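Weekly sync, protein design subgroup
Attendees: M.S., D.O., the rotation student, P.L. (late)

Item 1: inverse folding check
M.S. brought a backbone from last month's batch and wanted to see whether the design step gives back something sensible before we order anything. D.O. pointed out we never logged the input encoding, so this time it goes straight into the notes. Structure tokens as presented (630 positions):
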């Protein structure tokens, strides 16, 4: 063969080798393998530095399911401390570096999306060399690398908020990540279900991927629980070191005294570390649903949290429930530690019923039972009457219903307001003859005869009386019972029918939902003491069947408010709710007054009716929120 032919042959061989290299299928790799080779966890994480799936074995199969060509959907319902964010980050990194694709990451709000991008996503890109090479440093004018959009060869990732329809629209996406789906609003603005909107972006891809992760919330309303139940429903199971039976980690089988878990089969109490050192594997409840793998994890499997810590968290939550009938900490434990949905109970939703309250009413031997340190009154203004309740209070907000009554009359006339004033000046007696008068009154200004009520509040304050005009803000769960003070105008009508401002007064805005929440919990307390509510069985006190029905007349339901599912208070049909309102206003009067219980207790014990006692000019006084002496 001539020299020229040899050169051609060598050139041809080189070309073929280069072409073969280009056309050679890329090495198959799963997310777990990519993570073991590339992932670096930032400082401040549970285990900073080089990542290895061997240290958190339950994560590997979840990661690998994401890249399984036969699987479209992956759902993870989990507790808070099992590393689900790491699973998401490793998956995002894989689809940037190894199998470049278009990606969408959706968080509950755009603000949370921005925070995630600035912290977790930016840290991963900075610390993982394979990603740092693909995504250029952010620049002010670089549209390929912003907080919510990062471009790379072969694709890009968009960060969106489930509350923003605009961020969920536009371009097609192959890989859709949805984190904390149970915190998603019911609607993205007015555009509808944000999960459906996000999933629609991937509709045209034959190899689409949709990954949902979240801690669950309420049973029957949990989006991630629905997704989990629609898939393979897999549990991370462990083999019993004694009998070899495979079983999931279940908190109900944990023995607190020796920090062990009882085997579901042989009943042996086996220590935490013996369980964690045994073989593990995922076991599916529905293996036939092969296109949607779903996984459940609880904190008992976590390498970062001990069972001793979990037991203590449960004890603390249970103690709060037992003492205050407050289930919120237990809800948090069930959701974020066990990774399970909270099953609403009758106690949690509706509190105690009217018949139970009526049955525990007690006979008072005098106007005021022993133990009362302070009297407040509340007034609800109706068209033809005042609804009034006087309540007694002790330290720790133990409370006694004293009298519930009505004053009827024409509220356009001065006489009926004078009757109200006279009633509020009534002297009440203990069984040993000691006296006590009402220290503070809260009167509703938000309903009937608003301007007349403003005038009366002003008049009473000028007389040195602690009378607080109050107005409730409903459906405002995020504000406290005593929210703020506001100035209001007092008006008069001129001869020609026009209204003019002649004076002003100050009223208190109440977060009545917060008050109802607290009262409902207090009503469930069964033993006298802190927070307990007493009611008289004495005839003529006004605590009849209608009173108890009214006190329990409202309950919470789920209602969509501007696209977000919220708990709202609603009144039962055909039942008057004035008793609940009156209790709420009395509670507010006590809160506004801010009594110093030890001082009141000392005076009561000495037989002093401090509401009638003459004040020494030199005596130092403390002031309540309205600037009046206590």
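Designed sequence read out in the meeting:
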């Amino acid at each position: 063969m001539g020299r020229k032919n040899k050169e051609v042959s060598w050139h041809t061989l080189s070309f073929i080798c280069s072409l073969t290299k280009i056309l050679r299928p890329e090495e198959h790799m799963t997310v777990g393998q990519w993570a073991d080779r590339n992932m670096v966890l930032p400082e401040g994480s549970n285990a900073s530095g080089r990542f290895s799936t061997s240290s958190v074995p339950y994560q590997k199969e979840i990661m690998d399911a994401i890249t399984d060509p036969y699987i479209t959907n992956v759902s993870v319902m989990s507790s808070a401390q099992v590393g689900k964010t790491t699973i998401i980050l490793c998956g995002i990194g894989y689809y940037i570096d190894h199998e470049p694709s278009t990606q969408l990451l959706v968080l509950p709000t755009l603000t949370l999306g921005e925070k995630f991008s600035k912290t977790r996503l930016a840290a991963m890109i900075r610390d993982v060399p394979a990603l740092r090479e693909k995504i250029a440093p952010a620049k002010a004018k670089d549209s390929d690398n912003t907080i919510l959009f990062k471009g790379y060869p072969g694709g890009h990732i968009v960060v969106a908020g489930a509350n923003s329809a605009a961020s969920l629209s536009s371009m097609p996406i192959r890989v859709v990540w949805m984190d904390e789906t149970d915190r998603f609003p019911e609607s993205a603005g007015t555009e509808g279900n944000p999960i459906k909107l996000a999933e629609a972006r991937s509709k045209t891809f034959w190899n689409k991927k949709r990954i949902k992760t979240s801690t669950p919330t309420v049973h029957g309303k949990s989006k991630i629980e629905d997704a989990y139940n629609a898939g393979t429903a897999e549990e991370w199971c462990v083999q019993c070191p004694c009998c070899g039976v495979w079983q999931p980690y279940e908190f109900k089988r944990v023995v607190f005294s020796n920090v062990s878990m009882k085997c579901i089969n042989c009943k042996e109490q086996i220590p935490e570390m013996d369980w964690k050192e045994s073989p593990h594997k995922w076991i599916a409840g529905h293996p036939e649903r092969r296109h949607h793998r779903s996984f459940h994890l609880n904190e008992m499997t976590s390498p970062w949290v001990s069972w001793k810590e979990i037991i203590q968290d449960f004890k603390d939550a249970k103690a709060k429930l037992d003492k205050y009938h407050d289930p919120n900490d237990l809800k948090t434990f069930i959701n974020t530690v066990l990774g399970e949905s909270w099953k609403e109970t009758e106690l949690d939703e509706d509190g105690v019923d009217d018949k139970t309250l009526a049955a525990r009413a007690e006979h008072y031997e005098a106007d005021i039972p022993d133990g009362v340190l302070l009297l407040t009154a509340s007034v609800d203004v109706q068209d033809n009457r005042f609804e009034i309740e006087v309540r007694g209070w002790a330290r720790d907000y133990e409370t006694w219903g004293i009298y519930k009554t009505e004053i009827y009359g024409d509220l356009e006339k001065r006489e009926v307001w004078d009757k109200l004033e006279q009633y509020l000046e009534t002297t009440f007696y203990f069984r040993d003859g000691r006296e006590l008068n009402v220290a503070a009154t809260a009167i509703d200004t938000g309903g009937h005869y608003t301007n007349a009520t403003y005038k009366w509040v002003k008049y009473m304050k000028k007389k040195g009386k602690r009378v607080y005009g109050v107005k409730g803000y409903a459906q405002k769960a995020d504000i406290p019972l005593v929210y703020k003070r506001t100035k209001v105008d007092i008006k008069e009508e001129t001869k020609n029918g026009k209204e003019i401002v002649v004076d002003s007064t100050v009223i208190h805005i109440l977060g009545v939902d917060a008050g109802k929440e607290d009262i409902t919990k207090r009503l469930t307390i069964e033993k006298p003491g802190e927070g307990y509510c007493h009611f008289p069985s004495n005839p003529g006190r006004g605590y009849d069947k209608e009173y108890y029905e009214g006190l329990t007349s409202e309950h919470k339901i789920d209602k969509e408010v501007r696209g977000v599912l919220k708990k709202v208070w609603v009144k039962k049909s055909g039942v008057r709710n004035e008793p609940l309102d009156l209790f709420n206003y009395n509670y507010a009067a006590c809160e506004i007054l801010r009594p110093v219980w030890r001082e009141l207790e000392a005076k009561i014990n000495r037989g002093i009716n401090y509401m009638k006692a003459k004040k020494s000019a030199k005596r130092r006084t403390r002031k309540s929120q309205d600037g009046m002496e206590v």
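Discussion: The CA atoms of residues 105 and 371 lie 59 Å apart. Confidence is low (pLDDT under 50) at residues 17-25, 346-350, 614-630.
Action: P.L. to compare against the previous round before Friday.
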